[in-house]
């Protein structure tokens, strides 16, 4: 069974839209519990602010606490799942890349630190005061969303931008990313991640990606090292491992079939690679997550 990939128009609300959605979190859960009761992916960008509730949010096999003041950011393609210990409240919105970037042709989503790399944490912790301030902006978007007023879309996008700017200020303070990188470096990183997502199964060497980006392998490694302190090979390996984990846990394919799916010549090579990177065999990893 493959992990479902959800579209914006699958989610219930009073207004139907193919590129934007916002709701209170409690109402979102009530209306869409059948869609989000199991691990799933999205083909859009998602942002949620919790004002109440506790629990766990698992994103691509990393677990994060849900508590008041926590904000989560998801990019298209990430697998996630909510588990609540106490009733949650807050706001959630999501949108397509086109919804935002067609309005701001010179400003891209990947320029916000929580979206420009999968390597950056998907979690931001806000103070109570900042949570209250940002909640008011979410509420203003929600009210605008329910209206049929002139310049509705423009106002929503501008309010989203205000929220993203405030989040970015707090985010960079929280993770101590004081250094600002040249836009050319961020573009290379973003384009590399796109290329890896498209080709990781059959292209596992940095040289391929450097050639596609029209730069040298040395320069590519320099960019990746300076921006996220990793190598190109590490990014490729991490993407392979992430896909392996998704398939091992969320599909019913045999482990041998999964190894062939990921373009490993023999299951033994795949098993050794997986254990080297995770400390666990594929079989033990499957048992661990399916017994949760």
UniProtKB/TrEMBL annotation:
DNA-binding as UniProt keyword: yes
InterPro entries: AraC-bd (IPR003313), HTH_AraC (IPR018060)
Residues covered by the HTH araC/xylS-type domain: 190-288
Protein name (database record): AraC family transcriptional regulator
Pfam family, one: HTH_18
Domain of life: Bacteria
Keywords: DNA-binding
């Amino acid at each position: 069974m493959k992990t479902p990939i959800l579209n914006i128009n699958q989610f219930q609300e009073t207004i139907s839209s193919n590129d934007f959605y916002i709701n209170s979190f409690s109402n979102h859960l009530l209306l869409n519990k059948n869609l989000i009761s199991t691990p799933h992916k999205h083909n859009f960008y998602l942002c949620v602010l919790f004002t109440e509730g506790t629990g766990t949010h698992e994103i691509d096999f990393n677990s994060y606490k849900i508590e008041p003041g926590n904000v989560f950011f998801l990019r298209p393609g990430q697998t996630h799942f909510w588990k609540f210990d106490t009733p949650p409240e807050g706001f959630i919105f999501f949108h397509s890349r086109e919804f935002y970037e067609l309005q701001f042709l010179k400003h891209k989503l990947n320029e916000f630190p929580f979206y420009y790399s999968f390597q950056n944490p998907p979690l931001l912790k806000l103070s109570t005061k900042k949570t209250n301030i940002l909640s008011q902006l979410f509420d203003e978007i929600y009210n605008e969303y329910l209206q049929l007023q002139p310049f509705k879309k423009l106002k929503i996008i501008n309010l989203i931008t205000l929220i993203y700017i405030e989040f970015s200020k707090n985010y960079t303070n929280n993770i101590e990313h004081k250094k600002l990188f040249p836009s050319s470096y961020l573009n290379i990183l973003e384009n590399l991640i796109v290329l890896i997502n498209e080709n990781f199964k059959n292209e596992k060497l940095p040289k391929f990606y450097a050639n596609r980006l029209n730069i040298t392998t040395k320069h590519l490694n320099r960019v990746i090292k300076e921006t996220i302190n990793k190598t190109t090979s590490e990014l490729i390996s991490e993407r392979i491992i992430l896909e392996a984990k998704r398939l091992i846990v969320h599909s019913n394919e045999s482990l041998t079939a999964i190894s062939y799916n990921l373009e490993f010549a023999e299951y033994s090579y795949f098993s050794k690679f997986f254990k080297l990177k995770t400390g666990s065999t594929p079989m033990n990893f499957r048992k661990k997550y399916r017994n949760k």
